[in-house]
Amino acid sequence: MKKFTAVFLSILIIAFSFTACSSKPNNRLTDKNITKTIDTIFSALKEFDSATVKTYVESSTLDTILTYASKKDQFRKLGVAMFENLQYEIKEIDADSKLVTLAVKNKDLSEVASEYTKNLLKEYASISGMLQLLKDITNDAWLDNNLSILTKGISSAVMSNEEIEIKLTFEQKNDRLVFKFTQEAEDAVSGGALTAIKDIF
Predict the structure, then answer these.
(1) Which of 51, 69, 75, 187 has the fewest CB atoms found within 10 Å of its own CB?
(2) Distance between CA 68 and CA 164 in Å, rounded?
């Protein structure tokens, strides 16, 4: 009986330890929880996990693309391509001011995204063209063909040489911290791609 009790207690300890390690970030203003939330956000960006990013991030451009990604896998793959090489380092946490400073680095995607956007907008320049584009971006065959062009361009782009410093403010919600991404932060984490791409949508 003692042996069974010891084994049972060991299993419980392991189970509780695993639960503690895998628990979600909460709304506590501690360096540990702030770091955990940032890590969760950047992991979700790399996987382009729409639900998780939307839970912890406030960003108009990301929100638009994530909405498409939740409905169309081609947009999710585009997001993965955009963020898979993203590197980050937390430089400073100011819990009192609710501000985090990070250094981020990604591929330089501004030229790739800008060229793609220009060509697409040229093709759909008129009002009727823009209406047609809104229809086309719901068409799987069109997405497979067109977004694969952009994804291939992203794959062949080179890593940027320099880190960019960004500052993220955050808000304390009932159950979590929510980080606000400015346009500068969106550009930095996406290698300049988000500003170019949002012109399409």
Answers:
(1) 51
(2) 28
Q: Which residues on neighbouring strands pair with residue 57, listed in sequence order?
A: 179
End-to-end CA distance of the chain: 66
Is residue 53 within 8 A of residue 44, CB to CB? The reply is yes
Task: Please state, as a whole number, how many other Cβ atoms lie within 10 Å of the Cβ of residue 59.
Answer: 20
Q: Which amino acid is at 100?
A: V
What six digits make up the tokens of 67? 């909405």
Residue 153 near residue 112 (C-beta atoms within 8 A): yes
pLDDT digits (tens, 9 = 90+) for 113-172: 888 888 888 888 888 888 888 888 889 999 999 888 889 999 999 999 999 999 999 999
Nearest CA among 96, 82, 94 for reference residue 197: 82
Tokens found for residue 182: 């400015």
